[in-house]
Amino acid sequence: MDHLKGEAPMSEPLNLPDLGARQNLRQTVADALRAALVAGEMRPGVLYSAPALAARFQVSATPVREAMLDLAKEGLVTAVRNKGFRVADLSERELDEITELRDLIEVPTVARIAETIPAERVLTLRSRAEAIVSAAEQGDVLGYIEADQVFHLDLLALAGNAHLLGVVRELRHRSRLYGVSRLAERGELGDSAREHLRLLDSVASGDAGGAASLMRHHLRHVRGIWADRPEP
Fold it and tell me: Whole-angstrom Cα distance, residue 144 to residue 133?
C-alpha cells in the first residue's frame, strides 16, 4: 500500500468488533468502524485501505468501501484517491464545542424525561445500563462504547423528539474516547460505567434536578476521557 507523505500506514492489527449477522453488510461495517473510530482504535494520520479492512472483517472490499464513503459524508474520514481513507482528527476546541452542545441538549432533556415519563418506562432501560457495566468489567472497550451509545440514545428517545436524537447521535459519532482503553487497562472503567445506573435511578425517581446534575457531571467526565489522548 502506498504511503502519503507524513502519514503513518496501517501496520498493527486493529481491535474491531465482530460483524455478527450480515443482513445489511454496508450498515453493519459502518457501525463497526464508527465504534472503532470513537474508541480511538483507528487513529488520525493513519491511512486505511478498504481491502485491508475487508480482510480483517472477512468480507469483500465493496461493502467496506461503501461504508467508508458513508463515514466520509459524515466528516469522520477523508477519502484519499486510489489509496484509502484517513481518519479525521479533532482539536481540543472541537471536543469542547461538542461537549457544550451535548450539555445544552441532553441535560434539560434528561430533566424533562424525569419530570414526565413514568418510572416503569424509564426502568425498562436498566438492562442497557447493566450492559455497560458488564462490558467495563470484562475490559471490552468496543462493547462498552456500543452499549453506552445504545443506553444514552434509548434514554433520550423517551423524550419523543427524533430530530434531537439524530443530532445527539451525530455528535457522539464525532467524539473520540481515547481514554477508555487506558481506564480499562487500569481497571477503572467500572466507575464510569456505574454512573449510568445512578443516572437511570435518578431519572426513574422523578428527580429532575438530580438527573440534570448527574448528566452534567457525566458529560464533564466523558470530556476528560476524550482529553486522554495517546502519545504521538
Answer: 8
Q: Shortest CA distance to 86 belongs to which of 101, 95, 76, 96?
A: 76
pLDDT tens digit string along 59-98? 999 999 999 999 998 888 899 988 899 988 778 888 889 8
Nearest to 148 by CA among 115, 189, 103, 93: 189
Q: What is the CATH number of the domain that holds 20?
A: 1.10.10.10
pLDDT at residue 211 is higher than 90: yes
User: By residue range, what is the domain housing residue 73?
Assistant: 9-87
Whether the Cβ atoms of residue 196 and residue 132 lie closer than 8 Å to each other: yes
Grid coordinates representing 104 are: 445544552
Say how many Å lie between the first and final Cα of the chain, rounded.
22
Residues 217 and 167 in one domain: yes
Q: pTM higher than 0.85 for the full model?
A: no
User: Per the structure block, which three cell numbers stand in for 87?
Assistant: 481518519
Coil/strand/helix, residue 77: strand
Q: For the segment 164-195, what is each residue's pLDDT rounded down to a tens digit?
A: 999 999 888 887 766 677 777 777 788 889 99
* Residue 98 and residue 213 share a domain: yes
C-alpha 126: how far from chain center: 19
